[in-house]
Write a structure and sequence with these properties.
By secondary structure, the protein is of the alpha+beta class. Strands 1, 2, 3 and 4 form a 4-stranded antiparallel beta sheet that branches. Helix 3 packs antiparallel against helix 4, helix 3 packs parallel to helix 5 and helix 4 packs antiparallel against helix 5. The protein is globular.
Amino acid sequence: MHKEFCENLKNAYGKVPSRGFPRITKPNNLTEDRRFNLIDPAGNRLLIGQKHASAAPVQTEQTVMAQPSRFANAFETAYRLAYAKDEPAEAAKVLDLVFSKAEEASASLRYKAYVLRADIAASMDEINHARVLMQEAEQLSLSGQEREEVVEATKRLLELKGAFGRGHS
């Protein structure tokens, strides 16, 4: 369905708008479903989603006992604000508050956070800030295992780089 909306938007507007009205967000996997937002020319937001085929993973005692870091909690909150609630300014504030504590997080989580924040900056027309954040992500040294953990974020980073390379601002 997302692909069809994107094709129709491209036919109507000559591009797939990711800012302003109308716009469409990228599909995102949340705990409960996979969803995207479609905002019409008047600013009305449609949330289009599909429940996951399998139930949410069962938490083991080990996952319950491991307390997520402040940085991990902020990333999850910002992700939800940006993609599920379409509140990029609030998501940006959450991440900006914890970037000073980034060293406590794994390299893969920092990478995801920089890409998320770059995506948020781009959606708010803060293109220079988005470029700086993308460079921060690219400068992180990731192991093979960590690279596997950031596949989705890397795809988004490449999409952002492609958008900026075509002169969109």
